[in-house]
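Forwarding the complex inputs:
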Amino acid sequence: MRVRPGTRPDLAALDPAGVPAGPRTKAEGLAASGELGVRLAEYQERLYAASTAGDRRRVLLVLQGMDTSGKGGTVKHVIGWFNPSGCRIRAFKAPTAEERGHPFLWRIAKALPQPGEIGIFDRSHYEDVLIARVRELAPRKVVSRRYGQINRFERALAEDGVTVVKVFLHIGRDEQRERLLERLDNPDKHWKFNAGDIEERALWPEYQRAYELALERCGTDTAPWYVVPADRKWYRNWAVGKLLEHLEELDPKYPPGDFDVEECRKRLIAG
Amino acid sequence: MRVRPGTRPDLAALDPAGVPAGPRTKAEGLAASGELGVRLAEYQERLYAASTAGDRRRVLLVLQGMDTSGKGGTVKHVIGWFNPSGCRIRAFKAPTAEERGHPFLWRIAKALPQPGEIGIFDRSHYEDVLIARVRELAPRKVVSRRYGQINRFERALAEDGVTVVKVFLHIGRDEQRERLLERLDNPDKHWKFNAGDIEERALWPEYQRAYELALERCGTDTAPWYVVPADRKWYRNWAVGKLLEHLEELDPKYPPGDFDVEECRKRLIAG
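Prediction (whole assembly, two chains):
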């Protein structure tokens, strides 16, 4: 699941419907997710608490994947575990005119989680080496330079206490067809559909290749990439939660109070 | 529960442990909240969908209340109903140096929900007529001028499609004592406590008076204030949800697609 730094994953060889580790059935997956969520929530509270005493650490979950791969659904699921007040969610769409007037990492830097928070990006700076590459939104030379820029940016984040977890939600082309057809079948879902989705889909091999390149060039020790099979929603949800166990490694501590407990108790009881 | 525009509520006369309408027991309250949440989630999706077709409408929930009145808990509960990607949560703390360099509504304007979103403020611009009044953080004349500034600001929001729902979580002084003592009893909660909380509590009557003034002067037809009894968490959660039924009045519609469904279906099946 973890892309070894410096290697190029062969996405075609990875089964998007697979369950390579952990729970093997939906029932097992839901149970495991439930248990995981309770544990992670405790760690999130500790992380937040520690930040009030000056701990700068935080987590940034970056979600990437083709249309319908479940980025939004993952956000909804993950946030369900946590206290949303300690989460900073941001969905990146096509850049605005103002954003285009700045370097591509400008809008990313503005959306980063604060100390103690869990940041969740639905799409990210990686669009600037994905759609930008496939659709030639920038000269090839400019796009090529961005991998290094991203690596330096993410390294600076790590040095500032940000644990970056990058997830590629790996959906199969057939599964995408099913999900798009479902949207077409339901008029209440038509707003989620646009004809451009079909044109993007036609560029599937180009996108897979752009992902492989991004995963290779930006899979680093400080900010590794993970490939999560995403055809089964229950598995996807469990696997992303599993990656957030990085929170446990941080092992944030509740800070002690800077007051006299007994004296405060007396004052409270008095008035 | 709704403060009639132009009248000053007598907070001392309103029972913070009361259940003035709706469910009368915890079991009834939890059931009613569950049912409410399912309905509201549907409306949130519609609101968001409508925004993709140019509908500028959105909702802003403003939560105010004394320490431990449950602002954070309400955020967590309310967000549990919704798709968090369509919510914009913001907790306002003491203003930063940069924020103090701007008019007091500057940081508020930057945190507003976008079309289709539900914004949730944990504290708000009302702090500038509450703690600012009680602690004399600004000259009395400046604070007095703010009520009118707030009303004009909120009217402009309404004109721009924002439904503003302002909630005062009304907790009793004894209940606050209990909640603060609980924090003292549990070392894992000490980070939530500081000795300043006791000093604020000593100013209880001054704060209640500042709230009464704010509710009177800024309770308008376009942006009314609501008082929610907050000693019972289950009742508080249900009541805030009930106020979000404003979403139903907006009655947002799923926009139709701008594509040929049959043609898209054929193209999808083909490739």
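The first strand of chain A starts at residue 58 and ends at 65.
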